[in-house]
Amino acid sequence: MKNIKTAVILAAGKGSRISNTANYVSKPLLKLYDMTLIERSIFNLNHKLNVKKFYIVTGYNHDAVHDFLEELKNKINVEINIVFANEWEKGNGASFLSISNIVKEDYVYVVMCDHLFNDSFFETIAEKNIENNKCYLAISKTLSQFNEFNDATKVKIKNGNISHIGKSIKAIDGFDTGFFVIASQIFKYIGNMSDEKSISLSHIMQKIADNNHLCCIEVPARSWLDIDTKEDLEKAKDFLFDAANSKSNDGPVSRYLNRPISNRITKQIANFPVKPNHISLVSFLLSLLAAIIIAFKGYSFLVLGALLAQLSSILDGCDGEVARLKNITSKYGGWFDQILDRYADLLLITGLTFHTYYLHQSLYVFLIGILAIGGSLILSYSAIVYDPASKNIQKFRMGRDVRIFIILIGSIANFPYVTLLFLALLMNIEVLRRLWVLKDKLDY
Amino acid sequence: MKNIKTAVILAAGKGSRISNTANYVSKPLLKLYDMTLIERSIFNLNHKLNVKKFYIVTGYNHDAVHDFLEELKNKINVEINIVFANEWEKGNGASFLSISNIVKEDYVYVVMCDHLFNDSFFETIAEKNIENNKCYLAISKTLSQFNEFNDATKVKIKNGNISHIGKSIKAIDGFDTGFFVIASQIFKYIGNMSDEKSISLSHIMQKIADNNHLCCIEVPARSWLDIDTKEDLEKAKDFLFDAANSKSNDGPVSRYLNRPISNRITKQIANFPVKPNHISLVSFLLSLLAAIIIAFKGYSFLVLGALLAQLSSILDGCDGEVARLKNITSKYGGWFDQILDRYADLLLITGLTFHTYYLHQSLYVFLIGILAIGGSLILSYSAIVYDPASKNIQKFRMGRDVRIFIILIGSIANFPYVTLLFLALLMNIEVLRRLWVLKDKLDY
């Protein structure tokens, strides 16, 4: 495996077809979920492919992009070199050629800054065995709903190599995803193009292909997206959302009720500079409020509190979603959220216990309430070992989403004592079940 | 690194000096903490050095050892070959020679079954770079209190190689630990010894040393022990206990009060076929009983219950100690114990809460009791992330041992309400403190 640590990001174009966007400065500075395209590109290449050194080729509105990158340098621990392409107006091929005398590495990734890629895209790239002195273009055999046929650059394949590349070729074998692996040796095949008025990247790649040096890496159709127009920006948001939220071990209530709603909320709030930990905190405060309201006497308080608790449970999904969208997930953030969730559970069932006690005036209520609290907290405690160990056998996850939903249903039905009793039984039996299921099943 | 996967265990001797032990059958079948020497030897070589194939050389009371090993084969997943040494009565050298035509591997470990080794011993062996066609003897430069000078085999070193080996040599540079790495090539240097009446292993090793093929691996003095006499068996128990219980992240009450007592209990009960999970269960049932007793009205119940809880907390250390002594630690066992501990905490503080309520008849008692329960359980929940992350900064671990001890002190002082309030504050403040301390400190 070649250990490629360097990437060239082409960020010089004007983006004429998208420049009608509000507050447009430059394509690389377009924001999706409060993160610029160029920052996301650098972040992904660094995190997913371990790229440590970047050449960013600028052109249109160079100063703004330059200032942004200078500021970014202070925030992230990678080497960023800014290369101004004098002839950027000739096309992205000219931008590419501007690095030919600058890049000293044998192999570099070359990426268009207006293309987005998901995890499976990067995984495919990382696994590809790069042969000596060959260039590679990542292609998909088909186009997903995220990309337009007319805008796409097409390729034709012959004997495993790319033989033709361009927007208007016939007999198409695949589509250019805007991601290249370039062996710097190949600059010699390109020759002097300074007399040409217009130089597209496809034009240059065709020269490399003519020398039988352009291979392909096949990636899934849904793993990439090209942003050309204002409409593409909306598609890009959906693309990023899918990419960030495809994996989960949600329980049933979360999957069918909470997630669809929290997804909508997240798509809205992620456009603002809101931090995931703040969302966790707001969700917790909502639970605290819900617990206090539930503790009051009267059916209406019970229902209002339970509804607030459910709302808090929905909002509780947003912190992780926002973090994944903005690529700012952190172990601390996850832990902080989990601890607050435990306190929210503790407070809610405490509220329900006091509400029930006021109705029934029996000390048994407290015993049962305490067992429901203990069972809930110990169930979450058990999940830290149980969840990873039972990934493949777990069909119905008994988690926080189910717990809060039971409280909601029980409250609407106005059976607080039954709800408490049911929770106490269900939570503790589930702990016992987990102890039983994993018996002799845990590896050491 | 040579990847040595084969070991020869010499288990043929009569063990005359130890055969006066009660129920003595054969040295390899001597039990320490309910585990035979031969089984412990196989287990350690497999787990610590990844040995997959064993040649066990038998002699004295061959049938009994043979039957034991045949049964062991069904229990563990390694290859065991039993080799009967016809001439075992000539000495351990003769036993060693019996494998010369059987072992096909280039390198094997050769180990005396009556020697014990700790983890740091095996780590030193695993890290040693074995040169081609060289043999190695693990030596310690000094003797620990575990070994007798007169019984030890001594070595002399010249130019980094062992030049002399024997019990009575002068000018000693180190001591033979009974652990060898043997290149099977060297059998050619030994020659035919069938005419000799007595063949000791030292005698054979001296021949290898004479050919400059015996190097040494230096190990710590306290990392090994040789069992020759009945008295050595008691030393061996201490040795194994130290080896099994040297590392811990105990809290202060555990370290200075619980551990010293639980260690004594463990040394006794580990001689019987008692399972760690059963100890966990007994400790839990004791806590359950303690919780019920505490809940009763009256000072004497409070104190009796708290004392039982403290006893349960002491016993709670024994399950892990026994598991480590018998080499049967398991992830499930640890998890099972942790879950039961959480239930024990839940029940004890619930008992204390009801006791306090009977005294004060105020609903605030339940609120405070619930916060003490919640804080305790969430504190344990937080420890799963906090403990590994704070290994180097944590000086005073606020864990279960401290919690139970606070209940004991508060109960003896007859301040149940203050105790409950103190627990509620302390546990929840400690959770907040942990959240604060790890802020921005967790790696992803």
From TrEMBL, chains A, B:
Family: In the N-terminal section; belongs to the MobA family.
Protein's UniProt name: Bifunctional IPC transferase and DIPP synthase
Keywords: Membrane, Nucleotidyltransferase, Transferase, Transmembrane, Transmembrane helix
Catalytic activity: 1D-myo-inositol 3-phosphate + CTP + H(+) = CDP-1L-myo-inositol + diphosphate; CDP-1L-myo-inositol + 1D-myo-inositol 3-phosphate = bis(1L-myo-inositol) 3,1'-phosphate 1-phosphate + CMP + H(+)
GO biological process: phospholipid biosynthetic process
GO cellular component, as recorded: membrane
Xref: PROSITE patterns: CDP_ALCOHOL_P_TRANSF (PS00379)
Pfam families: CDP-OH_P_transf, NTP_transferase
Nucleotidyl transferase domain sequence ranges: 7-240
Signal sequence range: none
The species this protein was found in: marine metagenome
E.C. number: 2.7.7.74, 2.7.8.34
InterPro entries for this protein: CDP-OH_P_trans (IPR000462), CDP-OH_PTrfase_TM_dom (IPR043130), CDP_ALCOHOL_P_TRANSF_CS (IPR048254), GlmU-like (IPR050065), NTP_transferase_dom (IPR005835), Nucleotide-diphossugar_trans (IPR029044)
Chain ranges passing through the membrane: 281-304, 363-384, 404-426
